[in-house]
Amino acid sequence: MHAFNGYNSCLFAYGQTGSGKTYTMMGGDPNSVGGADGGVIPRLCVELFDRRVRIEAEGHSKWRVMVGYVEVYNERVSDLLAKRRKGSKEEVFVEVREHPTMGVFIEGQRLQEVSSMGEIVELIESGNRARHTASTKMNDRSSRSHAIFMLTLYEERSMQTASGQVITTAGMSSRMNLVDLAGSERVTQSEVVGQQFNEARYINLSLTTLGRVIDMLADM
């Protein structure tokens, strides 16, 4: 897992609505991701914690794991891990900013440190319950937003001085962005109207923009 070597990574699930993107990323039931049919995200998290245990057993460093989860709905970003009233889907909007040296970050986002797979499962399921979904002709549980699950790793290195004092310093850091994109759809086939029509318009526009960005990066 290159994240423990300081490399950032990003994985997109892209495709037409109903093609299985959320199933691939989350598993059979997005509200219960800890089971045997878990998708890419829970399986990756299991491997991450297994790898962390093996690395820390070598005694050279410790690793902190931070989790963030946001969605992009109608071109606005909201925090899926923000504190809400029980059962509420109220949106808690955050802002995407760019720092001159740190790069792009999300202002106001809740980042939660986790130490076990159980804690991650709880956060994923809580975030999934807050996502925007709707039933259309092509998909009875269509994601109406792009969801971005973020894992950030921070290394802490310990060194003992000649006097026996233990000094802890910051080491490498890395981030994994795991993205469940909303599905592209033809409104003539999905037969959406009203609010769902506006959602489809924003989804298709953002996917087109993403495609252009990737094309430009490939040409650099």
TrEMBL record:
Residues 1-220 form the Kinesin motor domain. One of its GO terms (biological process) is microtubule-based movement. It holds the Pfam family Kinesin. Keywords: ATP-binding, Motor protein, Nucleotide-binding. It comes from the Eukaryota. GO terms for molecular function: ATP binding; microtubule binding; microtubule motor activity. ATP binds at residues 15-22. Belongs to the TRAFAC class myosin-kinesin ATPase superfamily. Kinesin family. PANTHER family: STAR-RELATED LIPID TRANSFER PROTEIN 9 (PTHR47117). This is Uncharacterized protein TCIL3000_7_3080.
